[in-house]
Design a protein that fits this description.
65% of the residues lie in helices and 6% in strands. It is built from five helices and two strands, in the order H-E-H-E-H-H-H. Strands 1-2 form a two-stranded parallel ribbon. Strand 1, helix 2 and strand 2 (38-40) form a beta-alpha-beta unit.
């Protein structure tokens, strides 16, 4: 089931400051709406999708600002440099527990 998933491409577009158009799947829709990094268009609504793309083409400053907001959110929430220390600390803690013979989080 892909409903609870985050399509990688949404975060990649945001990381590259590209305004995002996404469908109303819950996770990407929430990210795009809360960040202001794009728009949510209904499933199968080609007219609205094309309309939004044309609007960004006609108003490049709006597209740039939308992309900037998405980029800021991607940096804050998904950037490896930001999250690497915590991730590595968790790995080191797990490895340390295993080496001391303690049960792993997997049981």
């Amino acid at each position: 089931n892909f409903r609870p998933s985050m399509p990688t491409k949404v975060v990649e577009y945001m990381a590259h400051a590209v305004p995002v158009g996404t469908t109303p799947l819950p996770v990407p829709a929430e990210l795009v709406q809360e960040s202001g990094g794009g728009v949510v268009v209904p499933f199968h609504d080609v007219e609205q999708t094309v309309g939004q793309l044309l609007a960004w083409a006609e108003e490049p400053a709006t597209a740039v600002e939308t992309g900037r907001r998405g980029h800021a959110e991607a940096r804050a929430s998904f950037d490896w440099v930001t999250h690497a220390p915590g991730f590595l600390a968790a790995l080191e803690a797990a490895a340390s527990q295993e080496s001391r013979g303690q049960a792993s989080p997997r049981g």
